[in-house]
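As a warm-up, study this chain.
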Amino acid sequence: MPNPVSRFPKVAALAIGIASAIGFAPLGLWPVTLIAFALLMMLIRDAPSAGAAFARGWVFGVGHFALGLNWIAHAFDFQSAMPHWLGYVAVVALSLYLAVYPATAAWLAWRIAGSAGRGTVTLAFAAAWIATEYCRATFFTGFAWNLLGVIAVGTPAAAYSSWIGTYGLSGLFVLVAGLLWWLGAWARDAASGVRGRDPAHLAVVAASTLILVLLYLGAPANRSAAAPTAVREIGPAIRVVQPNLSLAEQRQSDADEGNIAILERLSGLPTPAPRLILWPEGAVPYYLDEESWARGRIARLLGPRDILMTGGSTLIYNKAGDLTAARNSVFALDAKGDIVARYDKTHLVPYGEYLPARPILSAIGLARLVESDVDFVPGEGSLTTTLPGFGKVGVQICYEIIFSGQVSNPADRPSFIFNPSIDAWFGAWGPPQHLAQARLRAVEEGLPVVRATTTGISAVIDADGKVLAALPLGKAGVITAPLPPAKPPTIFARYGNSIPLGLALLLAIAAIAPRF
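Now compare it with the structure written out below.
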């Protein structure tokens, strides 16, 4: 007799996919996500063919991404060139594409395991999920938002990312979901007096039980691959400024003076001790590398040993002097008004910072979400920037922080990561999701992360992913705190995504091995 979920597999897959998304911020109901993945694996094993498994995984993905990425629709609220309702179409269209990745994971799991036992299917699906998540974060510039492992944020399990990264965490959560599936089936069979044999289920039970025991006892410390080195107990004073300026206020040129005045007021007065003042992405409407008067104005806020980092734009001209493009930049200024460091964003957002195939898409009425006739182009600088008096900082502008294994240079390790952002167009769900991903980067790398956003959520995050201080959405304010110390390089910081990809290979071998 078919189980209730398998009677209407596509309808069930859609409902399960929607439910799986509520494990992410802001709801954070991660047990529901694990149950949803257990049900998804049951649907995959019951599929009559690889094509049917692909279809079930695809429908699951549509529901999963449509709810989890609902905030993207709000980005169109700030775009006058296109109707706002198009934002909901964009969410569905993006979900239809992204669903290909869980569909491919389902197809691979079925091809490897077919209708084999639950343990074999679980091992195969865990391997396939790691691989396809990595592909989702890589293909077509990548979209790494809300990888499954992000549901660990706020739980002891997040500490495992210092060993195996976010993709590895995703695989472990699939194993735990497999344990739930096996336990549910065991309870059902025990109640009916049925006993089955599954040559791979013991591996799943052993691995998953170990995970659950470690979670109960407390996750491992964020250990280094080398001997610990001395770190500062108290870092320099940082002052994170959140002006609470909407996108509309930032775009009104006649409001520039008032906007800068808010940033100046919140930055405070110089103190005897050196300060590192951090403004959000795009905070300055002036072109700091061209307008010395603007640099001078900012310099008046600073004491002799202060540094101020702010988001802005760098214009690019051709040999004839015509404006051709721009870069999304972060400038570091000293008390003399000199630019002592600059970072240009390297991982840009399609449709947000540039319009792909602009001549074609603009001809049919499409435009960037942030209206402009000039597109941003990627920067070419180092991920690590040295600030006089403050050491090395890794800058990751907005979206860049979501890419696991790509946020710092192991050969030139910073002491912290600065993540300026404009989250005003992310709705209510986007900012807490963005914060959660930044917290996981801190754990993976063993580095504190400092976020300065225009409307929230700004935060100071220590190297264990704990939020030490934060400013909520929609509130102007400042965070004044010492910079948390960095930890020695984690195992993941040293070896990167070779670890979770190696784990995927081992899981695939374990799934195939019972056949031989």
